[in-house]
Amino acid sequence: MDTTLHAIADPRRRRILELVAHEELSAGDIASHFEVSRPAISQHLGVLKNAHLLIERREGTRRFYRARPDGLDELRGYLEHFWDHHLDQLKRAAELRERSVADGADG
Amino acid sequence: MDTTLHAIADPRRRRILELVAHEELSAGDIASHFEVSRPAISQHLGVLKNAHLLIERREGTRRFYRARPDGLDELRGYLEHFWDHHLDQLKRAAELRERSVADGADG
DNA sequence: CCGGACGGTAAGCATCCGCTTACGGTGGGC
DNA sequence: GCCCACCGTAAGCGGATGCTTACCGTCCGG
What we know:
2 copies of one chain form a homodimer. By secondary structure, chain A is α+β, with helices and mostly antiparallel strands. Chain A is built from 6 helices and 3 strands. Chain A has a single domain, classed as Winged helix-like DNA-binding domain superfamily/Winged helix DNA-binding domain (Arc Repressor Mutant, subunit A, Orthogonal Bundle). Chain A has a 3-stranded antiparallel sheet. The model of chain A has no long low-confidence stretch (mean pLDDT 86).
């Protein structure tokens, strides 16, 4: 959880994840999308891989990366249940009621 | 979004959010739950407030804090739709098929 | 074997981050 | 007015972080 959050807290790493969310890309391909050096991207890939957010596939000397949706499941669960669902539902219900109360008749 | 993630990336700040998720607590009350100094907590509160994750209410010289569920909505939405829902469903379907395929014939 | 492409790793450096102590500002009781 | 409780802010310090350059290992073609 901490590892996951730390990994996606960096904008560059989020961008990397978005890049490989829909397609598999090689390390060099990924790096070519940024203005920082390839080693920098390689280090980011290491962090993401360590957080189980990436899948690595080797083909010859190339390494292809792909996002791993499962990696975010834990975090999603955490955020979903951060406040009990009850609270969340109460909040939304309250919002709806506030509108009705504030508006009265008009839409 | 970046501000939100940066804010909750810190374990201590997450703990603070959890503390005030269900009840309103004063700054000193919150600080008493940790072993670091009050100024440290005050700084964390500042970060959380800046990320719109906290609501502050002043009562005399005391300041009460409460978590603000809305603050995480954006992040939750981001994570939900990180990969299209389609992809997510395809993934799960693929996983199931892979198991079958591993046994019998492949595509 | 030799050269080149690919890419991870090591070392060094500037910056950021979280913590501490010291301080200032505000509000309430007497 | 005076003192105290409460709490944010300033300044400084040590460790973490992200970047760079330099380097090494691996795989392929000749």
